[in-house]
Design brief:
Shape: elongated
Strand content: 15-25%
Number of strands: 8
Number of helices: 6
Structural class: alpha/beta
CATH class of the domain at 132-221: Alpha Beta
Helix content: 40-55%
CATH superfamily of the domain at 132-221: Translation initiation factor 3 (IF-3), C-terminal domain
Distance between the termini: 138 Å
Oligomer: single chain
């Protein structure tokens, strides 16, 4: 092959490579054009799936229907349920997708979503992060010091926190573990209006500890009611004796 022919072939080869590159580039653009919208739709569908399915988004053939007044209609076809929602001028909301068949309710979706968000916010407010505070006692702590520490622990308990009460025995103090347990129980009785013993005093090595938990509102009401009934019963007994 002559030198000129080699140059010509080289040029043709480079043109062929460029043509192949251009073809591949167009191919990638076409794939991106077709696939990316599908990917974004999939992402949107995942987001929608977190919300309650509404109207035509519901895919079940039949559903257990609840009407706008909260009455159980029973199992009907999806078409019948959608027609009933349309006639009421409301939406068909899938409120229990995992049930068989899924439970759907006729309601205003905007109001339903607002109510759900409101309930979630109220639930978050009620959920308080409980911390575990710690209080250390001595075996022979004087009553005055115990009262001071009991006031502080009562504040922790009233604030909804648990309290771990601990005591360490050094050297010969190991011979006074019974006294340590007595002090622990005395301390628990001093804060009984605010807390209760969740874990009784336990000796582990040279350390003794117990856990106090706050008294719930229901437990307070129950205790107040019991005290009231006890006082009433005592008053009745006193009148009988007179």
């Amino acid at each position: 092959m002559s030198k000129q022919a080699e140059v010509t072939a080289s040029r043709l080869g480079s043109r062929g490579c460029r043509a192949d590159i251009d073809t591949l580039s167009e191919g990638f653009d076409l794939v991106a054009e077709l696939v990316l919208p599908l990917f974004s739709f999939y992402q949107e569908d995942k987001t929608i799936s977190k919300e309650a399915l509404v109207n035509e988004q519901i895919r079940a053939k039949e559903v257990r229907l609840i009407d706008a007044d909260g009455n159980q209609v029973g199992i009907v076809s999806l078409k019948e349920a959608l027609e009933a929602a349309h006639e009421a001028g409301l939406d068909l909301i899938n409120i229990s997708p995992n049930a068989a068949p899924p439970v759907c309710r006729i309601a205003d979706y905007g109001k339903y979503r607002y109510d759900q968000q409101k309930r979630q916010k109220e639930a978050k407010k009620k959920q308080s992060t409980m911390e575990v505070k710690e209080m250390r006692l001595g075996i022979f702590t004087e009553d005055h010091d115990l009262e001071t520490k009991a006031k502080l622990v009562s504040k922790f308990l009233d604030g909804g926190d648990k309290v771990k009460v601990s005591m360490r025995f050094r050297g010969r103090e190991m011979g006074y573990t019974a006294k340590g347990e007595e002090t622990m129980n005395q301390f628990a009785s001093m804060v009984s209006e605010s807390g209760k013993i969740e874990k009784k005093p336990v000796l582990e090595g040279r350390n003794m500890s117990m856990v106090l938990a706050p008294i719930t509102a229901k437990e307070r009401e129950k205790a107040a009611k019991a005290a009231k009934e006890a006082a009433k019963a005592a008053e009745g007994t006193a009148q009988v004796e007179q």
